[in-house]
Task: structure prediction
Amino acid sequence: MLAVAAGLLLLVVIFALVLLSVGAWVRAAEARETLRAVQRRLAAIEKHLGLDRPRQVPTGEAVAIPGPAEGEPAAAETSLEERIALVWLARIGAGLLVVGAAVFLFYGPTGGGAGAGRLAVAGAAGVAALAFAEVSRRRARPLFNQVVLGLGTAVLAFAAVASAALYHLAPPWAALAGSAAVLAVGGALAVRHATEVPLVIPLAGALVAPALAWRGAPAPALFAWLLAVTAAPLAVAVWRAFPVAAWLAPLGGCAALAHWSWRSFDARPGGPHALLAARAVPLLFAAAFAALWIAAPARARSLGRAAVAPGKLLVAGLLLAHLPFAALVWDQPPLVTASAAALALLAVRLLPADEPWTLLPPLALSFFLLLGADHSRSPPLATFLPLAAWGTAYAWGLARHRLHGSLILSGVAGALFLVVAGELLAPFHWRAFGLVTVAWSFAYAWLAMKRRYSLLLAGTGLLAFFGLLGAALPLRDQGDHVLLALGGCWVLVHLGGLAYRIRSQRETPDWPHIVTASGTGVVYGALVLFLAPSEPLVRGALAATSGAAHVALGGMLLSRSPRWGNALQAVAVGLFAAAAMHVLPGAYSTLAWAGLATLLVWAGFRRRSGLLRALGLGLFGVIIARVAVWDLWQRPLQVGVLFSVGAALLFASWLYARLGGRLVAVLQERRGAPPGPPPPGPGPDPGRAAG
Result:
């Protein structure tokens, strides 16, 4: 009894609010008619007196009153009273009516045929609301009509679902047919009244109808239903520039597909979708949904429908298109990668080239999807080919713009590709990953030199080194000559690029390029330690070869940039010292270092190079430290090392004593002072001795 009383009280309150809203609307209509009559009389008086009525310059967007008589002046801006009556009272009243209708359908009269009676009352109320909105279309304000249209479509959409979900009076397919009919009527009314309210409400109802009224629907029927109830509203939304419907259709469709996947998709062994053939129908519909979500915003952009934000909607469509494929073939990495590659090509084709950052959301999402795929048992070649297409598409798409920032974004895309390629290839196919890394490094080195952006060259070179190092670490015990040769090709890419700019292009490269190219030759020594652990001759030969390349490059740069030319040759000294340490065991390498240091000091005087002399003295310092810490305690070679190093030190000192006059003259010339007499001492003239 208490529940019945509460229900009656609620209906009374709803009825009172409706009366208040209708009364406010009637009063507003009467006020508008009175104002129009006064304006017509004023216009007639002014015309009779021959007065020109001044026209008011509008300061904002006026709300037009539909259906004014010809020659009637424009209506004034909506007052606060009208806004309260038209917006808030109407919306609150409509919301309460919808709640009342739901309560009526849930807890209305019981007994034989009560369910059919409730549905009949709800349907009649919904149709009456739509008819009332249609009759008053030219007489009432658009805001009020929008509320009434939303009320009518909401009641009808709820009744269509309740016929199967609550009362079981209609089969599930009939309930869905009723929802489709309400959606069609709402779309027609949305176009006629130029408002998306009657389209959005039944669209939301149609999207949730299968989950409420037909949970066990066959997959093809469910997919066809979702495709139909999202495609038609999306077309209307693009045509009439309805922003809410344009965003609700793809987002709601994707949510409905996710609900089906969570409840029904089972790809585990023995499940209904364990075999790939059992997923053919869902995959076909996934392709259809992806095409719809991408084509609709692209069409909106071509039509200039700025109200729906077509650029952002297109990015959202590309993001949503990744999800069905990833959910259906998550255990098939080649198919996941192929879908990501196809969507990458579409993104590069459709998104504007002057806004490269719009490619970042689909790039990031596809990267995480590819990284989460199970690559342990996937065919490497079948997975890598679409993966290469995916990485190439995004890298090229981001590098299309001429700004340096786009090159950085392209490098980020390339880094993501290398990470996924490493997860795919590195655990089982080290050589293949090394080959991919070298080819990848060559591509970015070419791009960086073509666009004259050495920061990209340095970043990608460093990343390639870490990739090769990651491939070399598991092989540190047995080594691998193929991967060692691939690492050498990586060094040649960078040193050859530097030589090409110096020799063929006749340029003086900037310091990041020089440091990057030289750094590859130096860090290659770390790779050699892992890839040739028991072959000292190979390690020494490679270090000496890199040192010879530095000598040649330094010689090319001496005439244009003496500082960097000398720097490269200084690096060559270290590489030659490393080669001697690899080839000559123990104290023998100390003796080789002593000979190299002596040669550097002599060449420094010969070429008047303070850098070479400083390198020689620095190497002598290293030699002295090594003799004191290590070689002195190796008894079989103790005497020979002491004699040899001591003799080398004395010879270097004699060079300074014998040729020091030339050094003083050079310093005086650099300071601008006339050269003084040579220092006293026996012996021939230093210049003639040097000659």
Remarks:
- Residues 77 and 413 are 54 Å apart (CA to CA).
- Residues 1-46+82-215 form one domain.
- The mean pLDDT is 77.
